[in-house]
Specification:
Order of helices and strands: HHEHHEHEHEHEHEEEHHHEHHEEEH
CATH superfamily of the largest domain: Type I PLP-dependent aspartate aminotransferase-like (Major domain)
CATH class of the largest domain: Alpha Beta
Distance between the termini: 53 Å
Largest sheet: 7 strands, mixed
CATH architecture of the largest domain: 3-Layer(aba) Sandwich
CATH topology of the largest domain: Aspartate Aminotransferase, domain 2
Length: about 400
């Protein structure tokens, strides 16, 4: 019998796309669904970027580039990282890929060895591809739990307990998906103090939401003393410029750049040249579109958080960044007689016409944390208000206690 590898059969996925398939099926059947699932801005790519790409294509920029990316783009990324993080980043430290996601796998492959018991610490709840790539690349996943009572920041004592001589990589994500939590300078200083005790411990800093932050300035752990050399900074244009489909992400680390570029060579060869031209135009252009988008997201954040907190059985902390709300629905589940957030999610979708994601889509349940769902507010005010209305009515009309 023809076999599929165990690595492939057990490979995790990003459940936002699985639920999206359910949503599209219902929509095709004529159902009206308010969709809070996908983490993608509902704004268009800036017109200046689209115009620049059209000109680039007409000029013949449709060919292979060096695997690390076009030098003009790497220079622009280095300048962007240097100015926004307050550190000195050289173009030769920068690598471009087809989105930020490939760097998760590339980084794990670069700093761990298959079957050696090397451990990777990652946030739980968190972006599901962290854990799936850790397992797929033969490393040992070690979750660090982000708790509501700590505003979803790292528990330093737990970090100290879990880091050991086998730990090769610590994954950070701030602003954070799915909670919207933001690590403060004090948090990052404390994390850096722990990391620097170990000679062979790298940090993967997922900073894809770095520009979408509301109540404070973004701080990268790479800006902490002694941390730039061991930090793999990752960002991109998907979220900030509403360019998810252009598939351009970039990473920076002086020592690892040539190895990350080698992984690019072995997989995608290089990111598409027209898309690289788009990213270059975005980074070198005016940031007014980004600033307007972030102001809109901040208003929507306040709208959805206030609305969620007005619903019986729901409580929601105010996220500091990204565009996700992560309400606690433990009491709501009890009120309508469901056992957990996944059953609550399904009933919201099929009975109320509201699509959300459950906490099990972002990692293992944390004892004592209760039940949570994720709503992306990268959608219109009208949709947010309609979705909140439906959730409130669903709980009210289906109470069993």
């Amino acid at each position: 019998m023809l076999e599929i590898s165990n690595r492939t059969r057990t490979l995790g996925t990003e459940n936002a796309f699985v639920v999206l398939g359910e949503v599209e099926k219902l929509c095709a059947e004529g159902r009206d669904i308010v969709n809070f699932c996908i983490g993608e801005p509902d704004f268009g790519t800036p017109e200046s970027v689209k115009e620049a790409v059209i000109e680039a294509i007409k000029a013949g920029k449709t060919r292979y580039t060096p695997s690390p990316g076009m030098m003009e783009l790497r220079e622009a990324v280095a300048e962007y990282f240097s100015e926004s993080r307050g550190i000195d980043v050289e173009p030769d430290s920068v690598v471009v890929a087809c989105g930020g996601k490939p760097f998760i796998g590339y980084s794990i492959l670069t700093v761990t060895d298959y079957g050696k018991g090397h451990e990777v610490i990652y946030p739980n709840p968190g972006f599901p591809i962290y854990e799936s790539q850790i397992r797929a690349q033969g490393a040992v996943p070690v979750p660090i739990n982000l708790r509501e009572e700590k505003n979803y920041s790292f528990d330093i004592e737990e970090l100290e307990r879990k880091v050991n001589e086998k730990t090769r990589l610590l994954i950070l994500n701030s602003p954070h998906n799915p909670t919207g939590g933001v690590l403060s300078r004090e948090d990052l200083e404390a994390i850096a103090d722990v990391v620097k005790r170990y000679d062979n411990l790298w940090v993967f800093s997922d900073e894809i939401y770095s520009r979408i932050i509301y109540d404070r300035e973004f701080v990268s752990i790479a800006s902490m003393p002694g941390m730039q050399e061991r930090t793999i900074m990752v960002d991109g244009v998907s979220k900030s410029f509403s360019m998810g489909g252009w598939r351009i992400g970039f990473a920076a680390n002086k020592k690892l750049a040539k190895y990350l570029a080698r992984w690019v060579t072995n997989t995608e060869s290089c990111a598409a040249q027209p898309s690289q031209c788009a990213a270059l135009a975005a980074l070198k252009g005016a940031w007014s579109d980004v600033e307007r988008m972030v102001k809109t997201f901040k208003r929507r954040r306040d709208l959805i958080v206030d609305g969620l907190n007005s619903i019986e059985g729901v409580k929601c902390l105010k996220p500091g960044g990204a565009f996700y709300a992560w309400p606690n629905v433990t009491e709501a589940c009890r009120l309508v007689g469901v056992k957990d957030s996944e059953e609550f999610r399904k009933r919201l979708l099929y009975e109320a016409g509201v699509a959300v994601l459950a906490d099990i889509h972002f990692g293992k349940k944390i004892e004592g944390e209760g039940e949570h769902i994720r709503l992306s507010y990268a959608t219109s005010d009208k949709e947010i208000l309609e979705g909140l209305k439906r959730i409130k009515e669903f709980i009210s009309e289906n109470r069993v206690v």
